[in-house]
Design brief:
about 140 residues, mainly alpha
Amino acid sequence: MSQYLEALRQAMVIYPMIVVLFTVPYIAWSYHKYGSVLSLRVLIVYSFILYLLCVYCLVILPLPTPEKAATLHGHKAQLIPFSFIADIAKQAQIQPGQPASWLSIFTGSAFWTTVFNLFMTMPFGVYLRYYFCYNWR
């Protein structure tokens, strides 16, 4: 848990620097395109930048040390759809006759990784819908 909080802290440290670099060009572009600068649009753009930065820091950072990177041979891509269900079931050790054992699903790291990955990608869909003006259908 502390590694996730550290990644988010890094995102919060980097965020003001990106905002400073992004503000003047964005305001100039927005004023040129729309004739004014809408505060709601600016808030949405900056929240999108913060979201992307947090996702980047959670997924990519912290980078491994050079010694550990030398020992890594890469992970193979997981190309089987819904294999996370088998991972959750294997880690939970469910016993079909005992419903109390089914609660162990919620204590495994495979379940929480899946849930947090889902939560991490949901805002991206909302932002894409906003920017491309699609209906909910």
